[in-house]
Design goal:
This protein has 1483 residues and is α+β, with helices and mostly antiparallel strands. 56% of the residues lie in helices and 8% in strands. The strands form 8 sheets. It has a 7-stranded mixed β-sheet with strand order 5-6-22-7-16-10-11, sandwiched between helices. Strands 1-2-3-4 form a 4-stranded antiparallel β-sheet. It has a 3-stranded antiparallel β-sheet with strand order 17-18-19, covered by helices on one side. Helix 3 packs across helix 4 and helix 33 runs parallel beside helix 36.
Length: 1483
């Protein structure tokens, strides 16, 4: 397959665009040789035709989608400008990744935003890691330089270049910070602190605001950081290049002068600054030409930071004020008013009362009249005589500005020398160094002058060195692989360099013109035209069409037009000798020092001093000559080191965060040499695969042996059939090399082979599906026929049923007609009978009217009795319900009272509520008693009513019987019976009235009971709500206090840790001083005998006795004897016997000083033992136990603790300060114990947890993809011995657990220790996972999850899961679950967001961005899915800090439980023989 065959339908190509530089398009049809146009569909959906004259005019092909966002540009299949630009855009905008590799170059974009990727946790993550394993980062380049220096013992250089505002200075600062942290061992020493302190000083005096950058470095610097044999920083040195002194006297409208001037003006109100007579910046000529303020900066705080940096570097405050006086004098010098005089204004003068000149003279300690005279006059040597000539006003102003620039240049040089003297190594010669070059990038403006000329010349030299180094690396790779290679042609800019620095070049002619007495810029330009255009035309030199005072140079990056105005003056940079002599005679020591040593450092001076005697030697001191000398020294240094390149890119000119301007980016990529690196790589064999990687990826294309061991033979056998042209590939010793585009061809062949296999599989599957479909069709046909026949049979049966039904209907209708006739006749008969019977009934009714009164009376009485019975039954039922409910309410009330007694402390807050509750309770009791009385009354009334009812019933029965016996229609009623009946009716009426009143009372009682129940329920709810509020408030207050306590404890323990470190440094320095004095012949006692106890309060003189004289040392000659006495016994009683005897004996003797001396000696001995065994886990655990035991013992016998106990004898001496010291000692021992274990675990956490394959064959089962290969040109680490596994981690943790268990330490303390260690393991593993692309795949996630499960099982087997150790693994577990979960649909995104609650939004997006398919069965996470997850994460308020990595240095506060030993009696004590107190006997 040839490269033309790749131009097929659906292929992606890049075509030029005036706005976006390059736009992508898809081919809508295949390309055939001879076609004149390509039919394309652009990214916006429009169709276009691209003209193609010949195959060489075909547009560049796009890379496969799987290579989008690749972290190394040289790993792309097609290496060209549009592919590089697109990959950088995707990483910068879609992935928010500002760093990308391009071979040996790190491309760094300025994000114009603060990113959380530079913390100490990031430094820890990159420290010791291979550059190929980690994501691109400035720390990765620094680590590669540091590791190469320590491994090969060769000096290194990091060359940082780019345009102004691209982030060069920030990158250099982060590089130096990385070296300061990594090279500073466990803590930052004074050398590293001084190296970092040089940054704010150089930024103040060397940086300024420009149109492109608010903090632009206006000088170049090369910092050499020296390292000792152990890799620690022992010194540094700084070299500067071409300070832009013209900025001191002139700035453009949107720019500022150097920051230091504005910082001084902002601090003018400070007491010590009032003598400088400063004012606002707008009142000074040198600071009022441009902008006054930079948004977001505070000049006052910046000056404070600068002064602190000067203090760190050893510059005394009085010398700082001298420096500030000189800088202030420069500002006042700019305000000196020079006036013209004479007829033709050929003279000038300065008023004698000129205030700025007076302030300038006073600040510098010089004579004002002399300075005013020589600013307006000059001395000439004519014929051996000296003449004084006045100068014009313009010349005087130029002399004033030249003096200001010269003073500032000398002060800048002195500051650099002072920094170098402070950074100079104090511990001998550095073994090797790493140089950091922060130099200006290629510059082109609307008006380019001498500064841009020198800057671009320096970039030409650096670009030549860069090209040759890249070519050299390519050559080394080919030689190492024993390839038959031909020389790669690359664009060498030697001709342009010869034009600039060669014989009769631009610099040479400029220096020659400067030596001429009447040389001018115009004559110099005319010489350039004559030499390089008329005499012999140079290919890199041109003349502008519309100007005779400018020239054009064709640089490697761009064509630049230089205006010659001011070239000679800036190159000479002369100052009159008379003005310098005045400054040499200054009363200020610093001013005199600046100009006295000018003659001694002429080779590095920033200017020259002009006088008649030295006019012949002026050319040696021109700025151009000095710059070429210093640049040549720099190139010699870089050529003798191993360079590492960082190219800083400015993504836009608007300084907007994460805004990408493709035109500006391409311009800088061309200027900084990134595209040249791509071109050199593409000219050779850019794609390089090891035989194993090639075999795993393209196994299905190979024939012959298919074993991993025969990978090289298979590749050599199959490649000639796959790629017929042998020039497109080459076989090396360990790798196979391909030219650009060949990997895409192989991918195309591989995809075609997979497609053919898929077609075969599809044909087989489709045949099987067709046979299955035919079988199902036959079965369906038979089934349909069966159902149709059944339907016809059912239809015939239905017809028969309808016929039979019609006959039945006819029969029924005839029967109905006959029946209706019969019913009509019967109805008439019944009607006649009814009228007849009605007549008979009415006659019978008249006979019964007489009995109506008796029947009515009986009905009323019976109804009334029935209603009374019903009402009484209902009242009884209601009463019984009330009683049952009251009983239940009383039980509930008793239960609530019982519960209320447990919260008495909360009810004290609401006493008024209790009083109200009691009143309601009393009222409820009264109502209950009233209900009982009503119940008794009701019972009595019910009995009376029942009695009367029985009597009435008897009377009614009697009357009925009499009525039956006497059926006379009109009986005679006697008066007595009438009276009785009347009485009975009245009594019945009274009873009815009483029953009505009783029912009303009952209803009132029921309503009252209901109100009582409602009130009780409401009161109960209020009490419950109030208790919940109180409980919630107490909980919140307790949580706040607990958090505050933890924070204070953490700060205190951090201070204690810092105190321990300082104490260790003090001991080390004292031991060094002892060794020094011993070498001089003096004898000193042992350092362990002069240790003083670390107590916050001063001790008595007796407490400072040496151990040899203390009671403790008499009993225990060494800490090892104390260990044997105090710990070898298994029981607590024998363990505390030593402290239990000695301390109370010394205290009870009445000698308080003796008791204090004993305890102080014990503390001192423990400190010495901890220092001696600083790397022994067992001994540290031992002394941790002893310190805790002594602390608890002294606390137990303290006066505060013995007040509540009669069995413990209190101490008479106040040892509270020693108890605090012992508490600090416990924390120190605990931290030392964790530090030892962390040191053992630090180097094995990542290899064991992430890299080890505990499940064999899981990662190796799937072939490696393109994305998981190492970077081209990377130097992999050589690992000796077996790689660490989880067994090693568990062994280290098991050793600590054994040591703590053997010393019988508290389980709470053990849980805290392992919680800290497990957090370290989890944070280190997660940080490495977030920075390593090869770890973010499904198979690796399975391995990591299994390793984490081993750790969890180990914790549970030791019972340590309750202390929060397992919970600290949640971040790592969720990250692994994120690797293993589905990442395609929106439901998958929602599930991920709901699952990964412990991870921050940045961590989730980073893992999704880094996810790499481990096999062909897996797919890369799409950008749409990542954007969906980001949208879901925006609505989640997880409270996580905007930090990508976890803080591995986080320290959890530790609390020691108070476990006092049991009180022992004298007969229970076991006195060891080593105490030598055998004379003590039991009574």
């Amino acid at each position: 397959m040839t490269s033309l065959e790749l131009y097929s339908k659906g292929a992606s190509v890049w075509i030029p665009d005036p706005d976006a530089v390059w736009v992508s398009g898809l081919l809508l049809r295949d390309y055939s040789p001879g076609e004149k146009h390509l039919l394309l569909q652009l990214s916006d959906g429009t169709e276009a035709q691209y003209p193609v004259v010949s195959p060489s005019d075909l547009p560049p092909l796009g890379n496969p989608a799987i290579l989008e966002g690749e972290n190394d540009l040289t790993a792309l299949s097609f290496l060209h400008e549009p592919a590089v630009l697109h990959n950088l855009r995707v990483r910068f905008l879609d992935y928010n990744s500002i760093y990308t590799y391009c071979g040996i170059v790190l491309v760094a974009f300025n994000p114009y935003d603060q990113l959380p990727i530079y913390g100490e946790e990031v430094i820890d993550a990159y420290s010791g890691q291979d550059m190929a394993d980690m994501e691109p980062h400035i720390f990765s380049v620094a680590e590669e330089a540091y590791r190469t220096m320590t491994r090969e013992e060769k000096n290194q250089s990091i060359i940082i270049s780019g345009e102004s505002g691209s982030g060069k200075t920030v990158s250099a600062k982060f590089t130096m910070r990385y070296f300061a942290v990594v090279g500073g061992a466990s803590q930052q020493t004074s050398v590293e602190e001084r190296v970092l302190a040089s940054n704010p000083i150089m930024e103040s005096i060397g940086n300024a605001k420009t149109t492109r950058n608010d903090n632009s470095s206006r000088f170049g610097k090369y910092i050499e950081i020296g390292f000792g044999r152990k890799g620690d920083i022992i010194g540094a040195n700084m070299r500067t290049y071409l300070l832009e002194k013209s900025r001191v006297v002139f700035q453009a409208s949107a720019e500022r002068n150097y920051h230091i001037f504005y910082q001084l003006c902002a601090s003018r109100e400070l007491p010590e600054m009032r003598t400088l007579k400063l004012d606002a910046p707008e009142h000074f000529r040198y600071t009022s030409q441009g902008e006054m303020q930079i948004p977001g900066t505070d000049d006052l705080s910046d000056l404070e930071r600068t002064r602190n940096a000067f203090t760190i570097l050893g510059v005394q405050p009085d010398q700082q004020m001298e420096l500030f006086r000189i800088l202030s004098a420069v500002l006042h010098l700019g305000n000196v008013n020079i006036q013209a005089s004479g007829r033709s204004s050929d003279r000038s003068y300065i008023d004698a009362d000129d205030r700025p000149l007076a302030v300038f003279s006073k600040l510098l300690g010089v004579e004002g009249p002399q300075m005013a005279h020589w600013l307006c006059h000059r001395r000439l040597a004519v014929g051996g005589e000296l003449l004084v000539k006045p100068v014009s006003g313009q010349q005087a102003v130029e002399a004033r500005d030249a003096l200001a620039k010269h003073i500032y240049g000398q002060l800048f040089t002195w500051t650099v020398q002072r920094l170098n003297s402070a950074l100079r190594s104090q511990r001998g010669q550095a073994k090797s160094f790493i140089g950091v070059l922060d130099i200006y990038g290629f510059e082109t403006f609307d008006r380019n002058s001498f500064e841009q000329f020198c800057i671009n010349y320096a970039n030409e030299k650096l670009q030549q060195q860069f090209n040759r180094h890249v070519f050299h690396l390519e050559q080394e790779e080919y030689v190492r692989e024993e390839l038959a290679w031909s020389r790669i042609e690359f664009s060498d800019n030697q001709q342009c360099i010869n034009l600039l620095e060669g014989q009769l070049g631009l610099f040479d002619l400029l220096d020659e013109e400067c030596r001429m007495p009447k040389g001018s810029d115009e004559s110099w330009v005319q010489k350039l035209y004559d030499q390089h255009l008329t005499s012999k035309k140079h290919p890199h030199f041109q003349k502008p069409r519309m100007s005779n005072s400018a020239f054009v140079v064709l640089h490697f990056a761009d064509t630049v037009q230089y205006e010659c105005d001011g070239f000679l003056g800036k190159n000479r940079d002369t100052v009159f000798e008379e003005l310098i002599n005045i400054l040499k005679a200054s009363q200020s020591e610093l001013v005199a020092e600046l100009f006295q040593q000018q003659g001694n450092v002429s080779s590095v001076a920033n200017g020259s001093v002009r006088s008649g005697k030295r006019a012949a030697r002026e050319h040696k001191l021109t700025v151009g000559f000095q710059f070429r000398q210093s640049l040549q020294m720099l190139m010699d240094t870089l050529n003798n080191t191993t360079p590492h390149y960082v190219r800083c890119i400015k993504p836009n000119d608007l300084k907007e965060a994460f805004m990408f301007d493709p035109r500006r980016t391409v311009q800088q990529l061309r200027a900084c040499g990134v595209l040249e690196t791509i071109r050199i790589s593409a000219a050779g064999f850019p794609s390089r695969w090891t035989y194993e990687e090639f075999f795993c990826r393209y196994r299905l294309l190979l024939r012959g042996p298919q074993g991993q061991e025969q990978a090289q033979a298979s590749c050599r056998q199959a490649l000639p059939q796959l790629i017929p042209d042998p020039d497109q590939y080459c076989f090396g010793k360990t790798k196979v090399f391909f030219r650009a585009g060949q990997v895409a061809l192989l991918e195309r062949l591989r995809a075609e082979r997979l497609r053919v296999a898929a077609v075969i599989i599809q044909s087989r599957v489709r045949g099987w599906l067709a046979r299955i479909r035919y079988t199902r069709t036959c079965w369906a046909t038979v089934t349909i026929q069966r159902y149709c026949r059944g339907a016809l049979a059912r239809r015939l049966a239905l017809t028969l049923r309808y016929t039979k039904a019609a006959l039945v209907i006819q029969k029924s209708y005839r029967m109905m007609v006959v029946r209706q006739l019969f019913l009509m006749i019967r109805q008439a008969t019944v009607t006649i009978q009814a009228f007849t019977r009605g007549t008979l009934a009415r006659s019978r009714y008249r006979l019964l009217v007489a009995e109506r009164a008796a029947v009515l009376l009986q009905a009323r009485v019976r109804g009334w009795l029935a209603r009374q019975t019903y009402r009484r039954v209902r009242a009884a039922v209601v009463f019984m319900q009330c009683c049952a409910r009251r009983r239940a309410a009383r039980r509930e009330l008793m239960k609530l009272k019982t519960e209320a007694r447990s919260v008495e402390k909360y009810r004290e807050l609401n006493k008024g509520m209790e009083v109200k509750l009691m009143q309601l309770q009393l009222r409820a009791d009264q109502e209950a008693r009233g209900g009982a009385a009503l119940k008794e009354t009701l019972h009595a009334e019910r009995e009376a009513t029942n009695t009367e009812l029985e009597a009435l019933r008897a009377t009614v029965q009697k009357l009925e019987s009499q009525k039956q016996e006497k059926p006379q229609p009109c009986p005679v009623i006697s008066d007595k019976e009438v009276e009785e009946r009347r009485r009975a009716e009245e009594k019945a009426a009274q009873e009815v009235l009483q029953l009505t009143q009783l029912q009303a009372l009952q209803r009132e009682k029921d309503s009252f009971c209901k109100d009582t129940e409602d009130l009780s329920a409401r009161l109960f709810e209020q009490e419950k709500a109030q208790e919940e509020c109180v409980h919630q408030a107490v909980s919140q207050a307790s949580a706040a206090l607990r958090a505050e306590l933890d924070e204070e404890r953490r700060k205190y323990q951090g201070l204690l840790r810092e105190f321990t470190r300082l104490e260790q440094r003090y001991d080390n320095l004292r031991e060094m001083s002892l060794l020094t004095e011993r070498t001089k012949g003096h004898r000193r006692t042992d350092s362990t005998q002069s240790l003083e106890p670390s107590s916050p309060t001063p001790l008595s003189p007796q407490s400072l006795t040496p151990l040899s004289l203390s009671p403790f040392s008499s009993a225990f000659s060494s800490p090892e004897e104390v260990r044997r006495v105090s710990v070898t016994s298994p029981s607590i009683e024998r363990r505390v016997s030593v402290w239990g005897i000695e301390t109370p004996m010394a205290d009870c003797s009445g000698d308080r000083a003796h008791a204090r001396s004993l305890c102080s000696a014990a503390v001192t001995a423990m400190k010495a033992a901890l220092k001696k065994h600083s790397n022994d886990v067992d001994m540290t655990a031992l002394w941790l136990r002893n310190a805790c035991l002594l602390h608890d013992l002294l606390t137990q016998h303290s006066p505060k603790q013995t007040l509540d106990s009669d069995e413990v004898v209190p101490l008479t001496a106040d040892l509270s300060d020693l108890i605090r010291t012992l508490s600090d000692l416990c924390i120190q021992a605990y931290q030392q114990l964790l530090s030892i274990t962390e040191k053992h675990l630090q180097n094995i956490i990542v290899p064991a947890l992430l890299e080890s394959e505990t499940i064999p064959g899981l990662s190796g089962s799937a072939g490696k993809s393109v994305m998981s290969r190492k970077r081209a040109g990377s130097d992999p680490r050589t690992v000796g011995g077996d790689a660490p596994t989880m067994a090693a981690v568990l062994r280290k943790l098991g050793a600590l657990h054994t040591a703590l268990s053997h010393q019988d330490l508290s389980p709470t303390l053990m849980e805290q220790a392992f919680n800290q260690l497990i957090y370290l393991i989890s944070a280190s593993a997660l940080n490495s996972l977030l920075l390593r692309k090869d770890m973010c795949c499904w198979s690796r996630g399975m391995q990591i999850r299994y390793n984490v499960s081993l750790l969890e099982e180990w914790l549970r087997s030791r019972g340590l899961q309750t202390g929060g150790a397992v919970a600290t693994l949640e971040h790592l577990i969720q990250a692994v679950q994120l690797l293993q979960a589905g990442k395609k649909t929106e439901s998958d995104a929602k599930a991920l967001v709901q699952t990964c609650t412990a991870l921050s939004s940045q961590q989730i997006v980073k893992i999704l961005t880094l996810y790499t398919p481990g096999s062909d069965l897996d797919e890369r996470v799409t950008l749409n899915f990542i954007r969906t997850v980001q949208g879901l994460l925006k609505g989640r308020s997880d409270g996580q800090p905007p930090q990508l990595l976890m803080d591995v240095r986080r320290v959890f506060p530790v609390t020691f439980p108070y476990l006092p030993p049991p009180v022992l009696r004298a007969e229970q004590l076991v006195i060891p023989d080593s105490l030598k107190i055998s004379f003590v006997r039991r009574a």
